[in-house]
Amino acid sequence: MSVDQATVRRIAHLARIAVTDEEVPNLQSELNAILAFVEQLGEVDVTGVEPMTSVTPMAMKKRVDAVTDGGFPEKVTGNAPVSEDGFFVVPKVVE
Amino acid sequence: MTDPTKLTLAEARDALANKSLSAVELTGAFVSAVEKARDLNAYVLETPDKALAMAKASDDRIAKGAAGPLEGIPLGIKDLYATEGVRTTAGSNILRNFVPAYESTVTSQLWRDGAVMLGKLNNDEFAMGSSNESSAFGPAVSPWRRPGSNAQLVPGGSSGGSSAAVAADLCLGATATDTGGSIRQPAAFTGTVGIKPTYGRCSRWGIVAFASSLDQAGPIAKTVRDTAILLRSMAGHDAKDTTSADIAVPDYEAAVGRSIKGMKIGIPKEYRVDGMSSEIEALWMQGIEWLREAGAEIVEVSLPHTKYALPAYYIVAPAEASSNLARYDGVRYGLRVPGKDIAEMYENTRAAGFGKEVRRRIMIGTYVLSAGYYDAYYVRAQQIRTLIKRDFETVYAAGVDAILTPATPSPAFGVGEMGAADPVEMYLNDVFTVTVNMAGLPGLALPAGLSSDGLPLGLQLIGRPFDEETLFSVGEVIEKAAGRFTAPDRWWA
Amino acid sequence: MNAPADPKKLIKGATGDWEVVVGMEIHAQVTSKSKLFSGASTEFGGEPNDHVSLVDAAMPGMLPVINEECVAQAVRTGLGLKAEINLRSVFDRKNYFYPDLPQGYQISQYKSPIVGEGEVLVDMIDGTQIRVGVERLHLEQDAGKSLHDQHPTMSFVDLNRSGVALMEIVSKPDIRSADEAKAYVTKLRTILRYLGTCDGDMEKGSLRADVNVSVRKPGDPLGTRCEIKNVNSIRFIGQAVEAEARRQIGILEDGGVIKQETRLFDPGKGETRSMRSKEEAHDYRYFPDPDLLPLEFDQAYVDALAAHLPELPDAKKARFIAEYGLSPYDAGVLVAERDQADYFESVAKGRDGKAAANWVINELFGRLNKEGLDIGASPVSAAQLGAVVDLIGEGTISGKIAKDLFEIVWTEGGDPRALVESRGMKQVTDTGAIEKAVDEVIAANPDKVQQAIAKPTMLGWFVGQVMKQTGGKANPQSVNDLLKAKLGI
Ligand SMILES: [Mg+2]
Ligand SMILES: [Zn+2]
Question: Is residue A53 a part of any domain in this protein?
Answer without folding.
Answer: no
